[in-house]
Design a protein that fits this description.
7 strands, elongated, mainly alpha, 272 residues, two-stranded antiparallel sheet, C2H2-type domain-containing protein
Length: 272
Amino acid sequence: CRLAELTTNSNDYRQAGVQGGTFFPSRGEIPRSRSQAARSPPHDWSSERSGSSAATPAPTEGSADPAQSDQDESDFAAISTSPTTSTSTSSSTASRWARFRVPDDVFSDPYDPVRHELYHQIKREPWFISQDRERPITPGEASRIPGSIPGESVLLAFYDRVSDAQGKTVLRCTICMQTNPQTQLYPRPDRAKVHMRHHFELRPIPCNGKCDVPHCMQRFFTMGDLTAHVTGKTEPLATCQYCGKTMRAKNLKRHVGNFCHRAPPAVRRNRG
């Protein structure tokens, strides 16, 4: 009789918990009342299976900040950041990446139908989706874009060839021109190509475990990025003699001069 009474009370408790929405969750369950369930419509997966949206590139990791991959990009991003404004590292990174975001209507005003079509076509091509190296521009595409050369990187099709103050031919990013008429000029095509990879968020250089981390899947904009990644994982560590912190040997001098609070004044730099 006692066992039957306990079983009945246990069933009543579980039933009351479900009705009131106050049971104790387990294995990741989330307590929900009937009213909450009624207000939560089922997820519509049909919109995600729609073929109308452009393909999404393969997930990539690597340099979170364009300044880490190319010094020119660091200087370019710094144009929009006031040196007198104190910001956190995260907000600074966000402001840099804001310079490289490309709106869908980037070539609408002024209207550039050829580059608009090419930009969205690239986003659907297999090499871009798999984050491989960019393909060359075709003769047909080059014939429609002034200054383009068949066989060069298709990313260079998004540059105008102009003359700088010294009369030398340089490359000017047509995407940046939409938001910053005083955009940086690139005398070297390889630098211009790296800049455009940031606009496309194209990281064609994989680590593939070169950093001694098994199955490392990080990807990078340039070989220089990959080299810095591998070196950062494999180079020996150094210890600060003043505070005992451990860091990469190449960062020790900067740490002592700028950040170590226990370093004597004689070795500190002018910290204001």
